[in-house]
Design brief:
Elements lengths: L4 H6 L5 H11 L5 H10 L7 H35 L2 H7 L4 H15 L2 H12 L3 H26 L3 H8 L4 H40 L2 H10 L3 H28 L10 H29 L20 H5 L3 H29 L4 H16 L2 H8 L7 H26 L3 H8 L4 H37 L5 H10 L3 H32 L1
Helix pairs in contact: 4-8, 4-10, 4-11, 4-12, 4-13, 6-8, 7-8, 7-10, 8-10, 9-10, 10-11, 10-12, 10-13, 11-12, 15-18, 15-20, 16-18, 17-18, 18-20, 19-20, 20-21, 20-22, 21-22
């Protein structure tokens, strides 16, 4: 027996039961006036020229960091993705061993969150712009490489085999057979990564690496809510412009299903894609020059004392069971909240179009707002701890999953939902059994992937002093205990790699059932 799709979709929402039971004990008396002032300030953001100038300068730094980190990761990911493709090595050498080795080597950098990379590089390189760029580029490059290699290995090889059988050299056959169908997928994923890079650059700023994130954190800590909303509205405008531009390019460069009568269009689109990638090079060079990014600074590393100090007994005495269990429980609660609440909220608001639009706006703000700032806001009314951290992390990812679920419903066929409405079903039942049932397993498959991402992101709320490995990392950083920090990063990387493997298995199973 297997649960039906509607039930399967709503099962993660059961995590709301322990969360709601625990919330009354976490509430404290103060802070509600501050929450009211924060909400009211959204309608009256500060228009002071000095404030706007400071926020626009910070926004420019954030966008530049995001573009530089994203562009570097895209080019590095393309090269490493080709180098870790089984199809390419099988075609060139006749076996896949080099691809397997490179894939295993790339697993470590992508398992460490960009915030950890930023804090670690900050210690060895000092405070300079190249730190933020590398903090985004290193994990993103490994993620792009994984996606590129998976896309390549999933492409049909009939054309490649035909070209090889006709005597074409291996490099030319690979470029001709696999290059055109690979480009749309790479650019589509690259557009998504650009949105993520903007959020990551904002997050790095929250932790002191400059840009708009630093401005937002300072205004929140000083309770200047009008200035805070000025920065948020500016960031929202950039995010909407980015999403619109990426969406237009995706639709323009979508590869037609049949190539017979569209060869000219395919060739034109392919040339446009290649030219767009090449145009990134001078743009990134100009941005790097304007930001003062100096690649030569990478040659000057500051040594980290303490790694060979013989204090490993202190490392072993850390409360490892509590740290690991806290991190895993935080991931489960945040994932259940984000994955389960999105369809539940769509069902609640199904009869009212105005409520659906308001919900979409709320999701947009949730994915825009960095989790550490959400945590600081929640601490106005809630006590610190596991539940508060899970709420901060879950609400951010709810915005991402809610947007994905709504787009999946819009892209799907409305026939089943319309038939149920015509048969007399209410809007909620029609949405549940007509619309949501059809996208349940693909949505949960993406939820499994997002849960793996949330495991990486636990360090974000943990470093804000909440719970798990992240809180201990903050303590080790502040006390310069590099031996403890090295052990914590290693355990954290092993956890994320295990979570990645588990989410991959669950995602493949759900997609096979779909």
């Amino acid at each position: 027996m297997r649960p039906a799709a509607p039930l399967l979709l709503l099962l993660p929402a059961l995590v709301l039961v322990p969360l709601l039971l625990a919330l009354p004990g976490l509430l404290h008396g103060g802070g509600w006036d501050l929450i009211a002032d924060f909400a009211a300030a959204a309608l009256t953001p500060s228009l002071d020229p000095l404030v706007l100038h400071s926020l626009l300068s910070g926004l420019g730094v954030t966008v530049a960091m995001a573009l530089l980190g994203w562009g570097t990761s895209l080019f590095a990911g393309l090269v490493l993705g080709l180098a870790s493709s089984r199809t390419i090595w099988r075609t060139l050498l006749g076996h896949e061993l080099p691809a397997q080795l490179i894939r295993r080597l790339l697993a470590l950098p992508r398992s460490i969150h960009e915030l950890l990379w930023g804090l670690l590089l900050l210690q060895v390189l000092g405070l300079q712009p190249v730190v933020a760029v590398l903090a985004i580029a290193i994990p993103y490059g490994a993620l792009v490489a994984r996606v590129v290699s998976d896309l390549l290995d999933a492409l049909p090889t009939a054309n490649l085999e035909a070209l090889r059988a006709s005597g074409a050299p291996a490099p030319a056959a690979l470029l001709t057979a696999l290059g055109p169908p690979l480009l749309p997928g790479v650019l589509s994923y690259g557009g998504y990564r650009l949105e993520c890079a903007l959020r990551s650059a904002t997050l790095l700023g929250v932790f002191g690496l400059g840009g708009l994130g630093t401005e937002l954190k300072l205004t929140l800590q000083s309770l200047e809510f009008h200035e805070l909303w000025s920065g948020l509205w500016l960031l929202l405008a950039v995010m909407l412009a980015l999403e619109t531009g990426v969406g237009l390019l995706r639709r323009r460069w979508a590869m037609p299903r049949r190539l017979g009568l569209h060869q000219l269009a395919v060739g034109r689109r392919g040339r446009e894609m290649v030219l767009a990638l090449l145009a990134l090079v001078p743009l990134l060079l100009l941005l790097g020059r304007a930001m003062g990014v100096e690649p030569a600074a990478l040659a000057h590393w500051q040594p980290l004392p303490g790694l060979a100090s013989g204090r490993w007994q202190a490392v072993l005495s850390l409360p490892w069971p509590q740290l690991v269990s806290g991190t895993l429980l935080l991931t489960v609660l945040a994932a259940g909240l984000a994955v389960g609440l999105a369809p539940l909220l769509l069902l609640v608001t199904a009869p009212w179009p105005w409520a659906r639009r308001l919900l979409g706006f709320g999701w947009m703000l949730a994915r825009l707002w960095p989790p550490p700032l959400t945590l600081l806001l929640l601490l106005f009314v809630l006590k610190p701890g596991l539940i508060t951290a899970a709420l901060a992390l879950g609400l951010h990812n709810l915005g991402i999953l809610g947007r994905l679920l709504r787009e999946s419903l819009q892209d799907g066929s409305p026939a089943a939902e319309q038939a149920l409405v015509a048969a007399g079903s209410g809007p909620r039942l029609a949405l549940l059994y007509g619309g949501l049932s059809g996208v349940a397993r693909p949505y949960l498959a993406y939820g499994a992937y997002r849960s793996d991402v949330m495991l990486r992101e636990t360090v974000v709320v943990g470093l804000a002093g909440a719970v798990g490995l992240g809180s201990q990392m903050l303590e080790s950083l502040s006390s310069f205990a590099w031996d403890q920090l090295a052990a914590l990063v290693l355990v954290y990387a092993l956890l994320t790699l295990a979570g990645e493997d588990l989410s991959d298995r669950l995602r493949r199973r759900l997609l096979r059932q779909a």
